[in-house]
Amino acid sequence: MDKNIRKANVSDLARITDIYNWAVENTTASFDINSHTIEQRTEWFAEHDDRHPLIVYELEGKVVGYASLSEFRSKEAYDSTCEMSVYVDHEYHNRGIGKALIEEIIKLGKDNGFHVIISVISADNYISIEIHKKFGFVLCGDIKQVAFKFGRYLDCLFYQLFI
C-alpha cells in the first residue's frame, strides 16, 4: 500500500465531506445537487466496513482524497459486485493521487472477493473516463439524459472492471 493511503477514520469525515461537497457544487463528478452536512455523510461513512472499504490519501497530515467501494445493489445476487467512488481535492489534481487511490481500492476489492467493480460516470467527465480506461475499465452501459444538473441533462456511463 502507498504510504500515504490508509483506512479512513471518523475523524476524517469533515475533510471527506469538504472534498465531496466541492465536487457536488462545481462538477458533474457527483449527481448530487445539494451539499451534504457531516451528519448526512455519517450514515454513508457507517456503510463502509472491511468488505466495502473507505480509504484516504493523506499528505502532511491533511486528507486530500478518498476512495470507496460501496454496495452496488441490495439484492443478494449482486454481492460479488461493488461500486467504486474516487474524489480528490481540486487543489491536488494531477499529482497521481487519484491513480494511487484507484490502484489500492481495486486491490482491496480483489482481496475482498469481488468479481466486478462498477463506476457510474457523467459522460462529460472525460478525465474520469480516461483514468478508468487506463485501469482496464470498459464501457458497459450508456443511459441518455437521466440526470439533470447545472441546467442540463446528463448521460450516465457505466464502466466495469472484472477483477
UniProtKB/TrEMBL annotation:
The keyword Cell wall biogenesis/degradation does not apply. Pfam families: Acetyltransf_4. Keywords: Acyltransferase, Transferase. Signal peptide: none annotated. One of its GO terms (molecular function) is acyltransferase activity, transferring groups other than amino-acyl groups. PROSITE patterns: GNAT. It comes from the Bacteria. PANTHER family: N-ACETYLTRANSFERASE, UPF0039 PROTEIN C11D3.02C. This is N-acetyltransferase family protein. It comes from Ruminiclostridium herbifermentans.
